[in-house]
Design brief:
This protein has 150 residues and is an alpha/beta fold. The protein has helices at 14-27, 56-74, 90-101, 119-130; strands at 2-8, 28-40, 82-87, 105-110, 134-139. Strands 3-2-1-4-5 form a five-stranded parallel beta sheet, with helices on both faces. The longest helix has 19 residues, at 56-74.
């Protein structure tokens, strides 16, 4: 069991959020700390697709609200989670946040090089190589993956 766990979540992907939270709860100690993070680039789409040309403060508030909704929807009432929304390079920010929080495990959901976000694979690889903690990469479910073109 892990004492401190960080999950990188796309707040616009309800299925990914639910899946990552379920995996985290199976691995987290009963008295462990749970942290959810979303990273965006203020100047582009970056790691997650929910980034627009809005002011960073507005975007941060919107993403925080969506993370909070995911927590209320899928986290049992006897558990709580700290939310972290940061701007910048996803891989670097996730590695830095994991180090800052001294987490034991970082969970990511990977869509590989297919799907909407081709940079996602590079981000997952960067985090896996550079994180100072264990990294669990959950594969995408069929629903999360984009259908192949015929």
């Amino acid at each position: 069991m892990y004492r401190k766990l960080l999950i990188a979540i796309d707040p616009d992907d309800d299925g990914e959020g639910k899946r990552a939270l379920e995996a985290a709860l199976e691995l987290l100690d009963d008295s462990g700390e749970l942290h959810l993070a979303s990273v965006f680039r203020p100047d582009s789409g970056g790691f997650f697709p929910h980034v627009t040309e809005e002011a960073p403060e507005e975007r941060e508030n919107e993403v925080t609200e969506r993370l909070d909704l995911l927590v209320r929807k899928y986290l049992p009432l006897n558990r709580d989670a700290s939310l972290h929304v940061v701007a910048g390079n996803a891989g670097e920010k996730l590695v830095a946040l994991a180090g800052q929080l001294c987490v034991d495990l970082l969970i990511l959901v990977s869509r590989g090089s297919s799907g909407h976000w081709p940079l996602r694979k590079a981000t997952v690889e960067y985090v896996a190589v550079n994180a100072s903690c264990a990294v669990l990469v959950l594969p995408a479910t069929e629903k999360e993956q984009e259908p192949a073109e015929s």
